[in-house]
Design a protein that fits this description.
Layout: E1 21-22, H1 90-96, E2 97-99, E3 117-123, E4 129-134, E5 137-138, E6 141-142, E7 146-150, E8 153-156, E9 171-176, E10 182-186, E11 194-201, E12 204-221, E13 224-233, E14 239-244, E15 249-250, E16 261-267, E17 270-275, E18 279-280, E19 283-284, E20 288-291, E21 296-298, E22 305-313, E23 319-325, E24 337-340, E25 345-347, E26 352-353, E27 360-367, E28 370-376, E29 379-380, E30 391-392, E31 396-400, E32 404-407, E33 440-446, E34 449-454, E35 467-471, E36 474-477, E37 486-487, E38 492-496, E39 501-505, E40 510-511, E41 514-515, E42 521-524, E43 527-530, E44 538-544, E45 550-556, E46 561-567, E47 572-574, E48 583-589, E49 595-601, E50 604-610, E51 615-622, E52 626-631, E53 643-647, E54 651-652, E55 655-656, E56 660-663, E57 668-670, E58 679-685, E59 688-693, E60 711-715, E61 718-720, E62 741-748, E63 751-757, E64 768-771, E65 776-778, E66 783-794, E67 797-807, E68 814-815, E69 819-824
Parallel strand pairs: 1-60
Antiparallel strand pairs: 2-69, 3-4, 4-7, 5-6, 7-8, 9-10, 10-11, 11-12, 12-13, 13-14, 14-15, 16-17, 17-20, 18-19, 20-21, 22-23, 23-24, 24-25, 26-29, 27-28, 28-31, 29-30, 31-32, 33-34, 34-35, 35-36, 37-40, 38-39, 39-42, 40-41, 42-43, 44-45, 45-46, 46-47, 48-49, 49-50, 50-51, 52-53, 53-56, 54-55, ...
Length: 829
């Protein structure tokens, strides 16, 4: 359903695009390995000879690898492509490089995929704080899924477990008997939902119970451990609530619960329970009851819904309950928070709402005269849409008996993440265990500081994944100190300027632990530097030339036209009116560092260049959208470079060209029969044209034949390069239709860097490889990511952008969030 904290990341892109160069003089094909053909150890794609399958860019085109290199005569503009930013030797880099450890984030983090999560918070009798959940990194260091705040500092604890965690997904609940004796409930996020109850002491781990389902909370009550959740205990069959007396399991006093128990609240000798039960301790009491140490008291909760997830007491002793419930789910659109007026339950001032339906409240805390509310909701004080009295709220809000609902100060969005957050809001049927996936999961009050935990990546300027705190009107990051990682992925990368500075643009809210505007970020020795905020436009592409000029291609939907923006040093300015050329789709730079664009006017695409004073039409007549534009790196005339375009077209002017066409400096020409499936991207290097395409199925569900995962045009035909014979391992679940797909290509000399969705069946390195003309070689053991979006090259290494969480394998594995950098190995101190 709804997730108010993170944008959804589509689970794994299944795309792949490949293409190579053609020649208008039909050179002899280079000896590129055929799919299924054994590679000769000495055979490779020629990087610059006349038979490299590189089309001419006009008459008298110099050889791409010749000694004069096609340099312009004196007096001509000096080409400046910034090629010196490429690594001097990719082979040496792969042999001796390492992943840069600087791109960790604050709080906690985990592997790619499911978002890191802190499920529970607790306090020891001496005042230490505990946080547990699903994570495996604390900053740049490996961590068990339990951290402790002691003497003003968070740290992982302990370094090793004497017992393996079933399912490997951490813990869902923690309770402290004393500083050294803890109770933990293991968590299985991905399996059949079951686990164990542990007692951890200086003597090690004792497994005291086994259950199916999940434990949500635990508490020590007079040295007995109360365990509550949506589970059934194997040892005695208890449902929802079980008690460990130090020796054996027993049922709640008076008799078992007949349903889930989601909340335990201790107040003196009283234990309040909330959940989805109708009976507990031998009495009838729907959803809420209290054990006073000698008997159960009923607080029957008649409002329909999935259950009560949270309980708290106000300063005057008023009992408040949160969860998912409403008088009428279809009609009211509000609910999920109520109070006991001494006689019965009543909804609290319009409740919380997702807009049309009741929201979810997962925890409550009363502090300084105000009720603090967290969960999954968009509005408070009534149904959101069409209600002028409703207040917008991003899963956090406050209420006071005197003034009613108000916004929680500075609890603002957008806040981004590189992980996938399940689309649960906690109001789904209980069988889904959705309450464990709500963005705001738990509060803990320590003095006047409120700790907030869940899947949140940040609140306001406090960027610490899964845990922050609030006191005195200010939010503060918790957990590990941040590195240079990103909250959100760098979807676009570019390198330029004298220092070969890396630039990033994407759906990023925080960089290096600091909130940043939506803009281009520059990475220097001092960390990330944000330029001025971009105008309110949809920005699609980024380029930087050797002089350091920065260009961003955007669409202004207010004026319904495209803009090519450049950074003046103080502000973003437009290069001029592009309305005659329609909407921009791609941006690249020529050898003089000038922008070239593809754009679409109605149903026809064209290629346009910036001359330095105006936009000039270069080529027209593509009868569909363009997905990629790649200029030949060396040309006899820098003003008339050859280029290749791919997209959803069938003709380039009068020339039949299925999804790919080559411009030789004067006219379009076809590259054989074109591409059989839709293209993803393309690259034009010194050894030809390369293209990647999508895996597609016909109307009968059969794969479309002829798909190129990574294709090279040898001058006469397309050749598939991504074969097992060339070192590309087969994809996971190939028999069920699993495929590799390459999203971005970049040349480092004659080596081709490729990234995308690459999951080898043998469990080998994922997502990032280099093709050296003979073999595919993994970059540093691979990268763990939901999406791999871009590549940038600098003299010291390869930069990768996307929804990245980790890089490396085995002992070299490390967190690197939003960006990864494979660099020359740092010298030992």
């Amino acid at each position: 359903m709804r997730d108010t904290w993170t944008y959804r990341i589509a689970a794994f892109l299944v795309v792949g695009v490949v293409f190579t160069a053609c020649g208008d003089d039909s050179p002899d094909p280079a000896p590129v390995p055929d799919a299924g053909t054994e590679v000769d150890a000495g055979t490779e794609v020629d990087a610059g000879s006349d038979d490299a399958g590189v089309p001419d860019a006009g008459d008298n085109e110099p050889d791409a690898g010749s000694g004069d290199g096609g340099e312009p005569d004196a007096g001509e503009p000096e080409p400046d492509a910034g090629t010196s930013c490429e690594p001097s030797s990719v082979t040496e880099l792969l042999d001796n490089g390492e992943w840069d450890p600087r791109f960790s984030i604050g709080g906690v983090s985990g592997m790619d995929g499911h978002v890191p999560h802190i499920y529970d918070l607790a306090k020891t009798p001496s005042g230490d704080l505990l946080a547990t959940g699903y994570f495996r990194w604390f900053g740049a260091k490996a961590s068990t899924p339990l951290i402790r705040h002691q003497d003003g500092q968070w740290r992982p604890e302990p370094r090793t477990w004497s017992q393996e965690i079933p399912g490997g997904a951490g813990f869902s609940a923690v309770a402290a008997k004393d500083d050294t004796t803890l109770a933990l409930a293991t968590n299985d996020t991905f399996g059949d939902r079951g686990g164990e109850v542990w007692i951890q002491s200086p003597d090690g781990v004792q497994v005291i119970g086994h259950f199916t389902g999940l434990v949500r909370t635990m508490a020590y009550v007079r040295d007995e451990l109360w365990v509550a959740g949506q589970f059934q205990l194997e040892e005695n069959g208890a449902i929802g609530l079980a008690i460990w007396d130090g020796t054996a399991w027993k049922l709640p006093p008076g008799g078992p619960a007949d349903g889930s128990v989601y909340e335990l609240m201790l107040q003196g000798d009283d234990v309040w329970v909330g959940g989805a039960f109708t009976r507990v301790g031998g009495i009838s009491s729907n959803k809420v009851a209290k054990w006073n140490g000698s008997r159960w008291e009923s607080y029957n909760f008649p409002i329909a819904g999935n259950g009560v997830y949270a309980l708290t007491l106000g300063d005057d002793g008023t009992l408040y309950a949160g969860g998912t419930f409403a008088y009428d789910f279809n009609a009211d659109g509000v609910g999920s928070i109520a109070r006991w007026n001494g006689v019965r339950w009543e909804m609290l001032d319009g409740g919380v709402s997702t807009g049309f339906y009741p929201g979810v409240v997962t925890d409550l805390v009363f502090n300084q005269g105000k009720l603090h509310v967290g969960g999954c909701f968009n509005f408070v004080n009534g149904q959101g849409y069409g209600n002028p009295l409703a207040l917008q709220a991003n899963a956090l809000a406050r209420w006071s008996p005197e003034s009613g609902w108000e916004n929680w100060p500075q609890a603002i969005s957008p806040n981004r993440t590189v992980w996938y957050s399940p689309s649960f809001c906690g109001d789904e049927p209980p069988v889904t265990f959705a309450v464990w996936e709500v963005p705001i999961q738990r509060f803990l009050l320590d003095g006047d500081r409120i700790y907030v935990a869940g899947t949140l990546p940040s609140i306001d300027g406090a960027a610490s994944q899964s845990i922050v705190s609030y006191e005195g009107g200010q939010w503060r990051a918790e957990g590990a100190e941040p590195g240079h990682g990103l909250s959100g992925g760098a979807q676009m990368l570019a390198v330029g300027g004298e220092q070969c500075t890396v630039h990033a643009l994407g759906d990023i809210s925080h960089a290096g632990g600091a909130a940043v505007p939506r803009t281009v970020l520059q990475f220097t020795d001092a960390g990330w530097q944000a330029l001025g905020e971009l105008p309110d436009m949809e920005c699609l592409d980024l380029a930087v030339n050797a002089q350091g000029d920065i260009y961003v291609a955007c669409i202004d939907w207010d004026s319904v036209q495209s803009q090519l923006l450049t950074w003046s040093g103080t502000e973003w300015t437009s290069l001029g009116d592009l309305s005659a050329h329609g909407f921009i789709s791609k941006l690249t730079l020529d050898s003089l560092g000038r922008p070239w664009l593809t754009s679409m006017v109605e149903s026809t695409s064209r290629v346009v260049r910036w001359t330095g004073t105006q936009f000039e039409l270069v080529a027209d007549g593509l009868d569909g959208p363009v997905f990629a534009l790649a200029l030949r790196p060396e040309n006899d005339d820098p003003d008339r470079p050859a280029f290749v375009v791919t997209g959803g077209f069938t003709h380039a002017g009068e020339v039949p060209a299925r999804r790919i066409a080559h411009w030789n400096g004067t006219t379009f020409e076809a590259l054989g029969d074109g591409l059989t499936t839709s293209p993803i991207t393309a690259a034009y290097g010194p050894n030809g044209i390369f293209a990647t395409t999508n895996h597609e199925q016909d109307m009968d569900g059969n794969p479309v034949p002829g798909r190129l995962m990574l294709g090279h045009w040898d001058g006469t035909a397309w050749r598939e390069l991504a074969t097992p014979e060339n070192g590309m391992p087969g994809p996971m679940n190939e028999e069920q239709g699993g495929v590799h797909s390459f999203r971005k290509l970049a040349f480092a000399g004659t080596d081709l860097v490729v990234v995308g969705t690459i999951f080898p069946a043998d469990g080998g390195p994922t997502h990032a490889y280099v093709f050296n003309g003979e073999r595919f070689l993994p970059i540093g053991g691979g990268v763990s990511a939901l999406t791999m979006d871009d590549i940038a090259l600098t003299p010291d290494g390869i930069w990768l952008g996307g929804n990245i969480a980790e890089a490396g394998r085995g002992e070299s594995l490390l967190p690197t969030v939003g960006m990864a950098h494979f660099r020359k190995r740092a010298a030992a101190p």
